[in-house]
Design a protein that fits this description.
- Helix content is 77%, strand content 0%.
- By secondary structure, it is mostly helical.
- The chain folds into 2 domains: 185 residues, Methane Monooxygenase Hydroxylase, Chain G, domain 1 (Up-down Bundle), CATH 1.20.58; 46 residues.
- The longest helix has 103 residues.
- The radius of gyration is 43 Å and the shape is rod-shaped.
- GO terms for molecular function: SNAP receptor activity; SNARE binding.
- It comes from Baudoinia panamericana (strain UAMH 10762).
């Protein structure tokens, strides 16, 4: 029985896996993209509510710093979770499939635009809080220079500067309420800075996710190429073994033919000798 190559032979032991491979849903990534997009719609509907609270806070309309911070933190948590989902989608092995790539790119751009909207709202809020700080300082120190006003809006120094200005202006009676308002706005500025830093980090994570996944994809491709190379090498060895077996069998038949021919020749010589001598047929 001849040996067969590993591929292309019916019933070859290594041509198929005996264990069925589970089939991945071809629409899984597209469905995930649609789900993330729907959740982005929900988050974006909360941004106008956040902006309304921020304006009420800076205008003294009744919104507290706790309300603003709470809603902002909640929205930040939602963006963080959605950005993580986008990164996981982009890291899937079939994310580069021509069927999936366009939709994933659309989702990635949509995610970044949405984060940018949140950044703009926070940046505008920071600007309004800083402007309010400047106005408050001008009230307690009308002769303040531009440098002093810039220092007032610098993180970490505004409370001390306000306190000193109130003491110098001899407005001790209103110091407590003014300092409380200043402290709230100072904490608001710090929270805004933390939020903006985290949003910037989300942008960087979205941009670096593909780079982080590329070595993994390359490794998968390398392993696949190595497997294919080994399979081809195995086929070559098997093909050589088949040729060798055929050659050995051919040599065996040649040797057998030579032996038979020799035996026939020997028998012919013996009969010829006996006939010539006349002893066998007389």
């Amino acid at each position: 029985m001849e040996m067969q190559p590993l591929t292309g032979a019916p019933g070859a032991p290594y041509s198929q896996s005996s264990t069925p491979v589970p089939q991945r849903d071809p629409n899984a990534l597209l469905n995930e993209c649609r789900e993330v997009s729907r959740n982005l719609d929900i988050v974006e509907t909360r941004l106008p509510e956040l902006q309304r609270l921020q304006k009420n806070f800076t205008s003294g309309g009744g919104a507290s710093a706790q309300q603003v911070d709470g809603l902002s933190a909640d929205i930040m948590t939602q963006y963080r979770g959605l950005a993580d989902r986008v990164r996981r989608i982009k890291g899937q092995p079939d994310a580069g499939n021509p069927r999936n790539r366009p939709q994933i790119d659309v989702l990635d751009r949509r995610m970044k635009r949405s984060i940018n909207q949140f950044q703009q709202a926070e940046s505008q809020f920071r600007k309004e809080v800083q402007e309010q700080q400047r106005r408050q300082y001008m009230i307690v120190n009308p002769s303040a220079t531009e440098q002093e006003l810039d220092e007032v809006t610098a993180a970490g120094t505004d409370v001390q500067i306000f306190q000193q200005a109130l003491m110098n202006a001899d407005r001790r009676g209103q110091a407590q309420s003014t300092l409380r308002n200043v402290q709230q706005r100072h904490e608001a500025i710090q929270q805004i800075e933390r939020t903006l830093m985290e949003l910037q980090q989300l942008f960087q994570d979205l941009d670096t996710m593909i780079v982080e996944q590329e070595p993994m994809v390359q490794n998968i491709e390398t392993k696949a190429e190595e497997t294919n190379t080994h399979l081809e090498a195995g086929n070559v060895h098997v093909a050589k073994a088949v040729v060798s077996a055929r050659a050995a069998r051919k040599k065996k038949w040649i040797c057998l033919g030579i032996v038979v021919a020799i035996i026939i020749i020997v028998i012919a010589i013996i009969f010829a000798y006996g006939a010539t001598a006349g002893h066998w047929f007389g």
